[in-house]
Amino acid sequence: MNSPTRTAAETTVPQEIAQLAAMRPVHAAFAWFQLREQELRSMQLDIARIPAPPFGEAARAQWLREKFTAIGLDDIEVDEVGNVIGVLPGQDRELPAVAVTAHLDTVFPSDTEITIHEDRDRVYGPGVSDNAAGLTAMLAIAMCMREAR
């Protein structure tokens, strides 16, 4: 039997990950996230408690817009379909931009009771993962990058 051959990209991915993991800014980012674990969990629960059924995300969009303002993003707008957009300019505008996105809505209908249950290590409830987790991650990345400047 012949063993499969690896492409150049496959052989460099582990090396690239190792290089990234060794960078001081990456260590600083991980430390930032660890120090703010409770703050981020609280933010996730706040988001989950805002109803956002499909095509009914306006309240959550308003909350996100206010959060974008609070963390200092630029050019904040809500487009014609309700997407909230904010910009965190990079240090070198000649470099490619990076987009971090998350959807606002949940799959739960508007009449769903939003009750959140917390264990020591877990949180349960409608919208906690769909998509309060994604919105929290997006905000946390922006906050971490903002502080790193």
How would you summarize the topology of this molecule?
Elements: H1 8-21, H2 24-35, H3 37-48, H4 58-70, E1 74-78, E2 84-87, E3 117-118, E4 123-124, H5 128-148
Antiparallel strand pairs: 1-2, 3-4
Helix pairs in contact: 2-5, 3-5
Description:
48% of the residues lie in helices and 9% in strands. It is mainly alpha-helical and 149 residues long. It has one domain: Zn peptidases (Aminopeptidase), CATH 3.40.630.10. The strands form 2 sheets. Strands 1-2 form a two-stranded antiparallel ribbon. It has a two-stranded antiparallel ribbon with strand order 3-4. The protein is globular, with a radius of gyration of 19 Å.
Summarize it.
This protein has 149 residues and is mainly α. The chain has helices spanning 8-21, 24-35, 37-48, 58-70, 128-148; strands at 74-78, 84-87, 117-118, 123-124.
Descriptive tags:
mainly alpha, two-stranded antiparallel ribbon, Aminopeptidase, single chain
